[in-house]
Amino acid sequence: MNALDQLATTLPYAPEEPGTSYWPYRSREELAAALVAEYDDGASIRDLVALHGICFGTVQRLLREGGAVMRPRGDTRRPYQL
Predict the structure, then answer these.
(1) What percent of the chain has pLDDT over 90?
(2) Could you write out the three-class secondary structure of the chain?
């Protein structure tokens, strides 16, 4: 099983037949709301890029449009060490 197949099994949606889209969102606003919810739950922008197959800049722009409070750069999930 290749990486794309593994990712497809983790997605909450899948195409019903070959050649159909994995894209479950009806609008840009719906996608932005989904990205903001995942980002607020702790996903990084790179996590969202990998999960949704959208480029980094687009994810950033949609998060801002969706009203997400952006975290500072770097892995803030780890405690700061001197």
Answers:
(1) 32
(2) CCHHHHHHHHCCCCCCCCCCCCCCCCCHHHHHHHHHHHHHCCCCHHHHHHHHCCCHHHHHHHHHHCCCCCCCCCCCCCCCCC
Task: Classify each residue of 5-33 as buried b or exposed e, where b means 16 or more C-beta atoms within 10 Å of its C-beta.
Answer: eeeeeeeeeeeeeeeeeeeeeeeeeebbb
Q: pLDDT by residue (tens digit) across 63-77?
A: 999 999 998 887 656
pTM over 0.85: no
Name the token pair of 27.
Answer: 């609008």
Nearest Cα residue to 58 out of 32, 25, 40: 32
Measured CA to CA, the distance from residue 40 to residue 68 in angstroms comes to 7
Q: Which residues contact 49 (CB under 8 A, 6 or more apart)?
A: 55, 56, 59
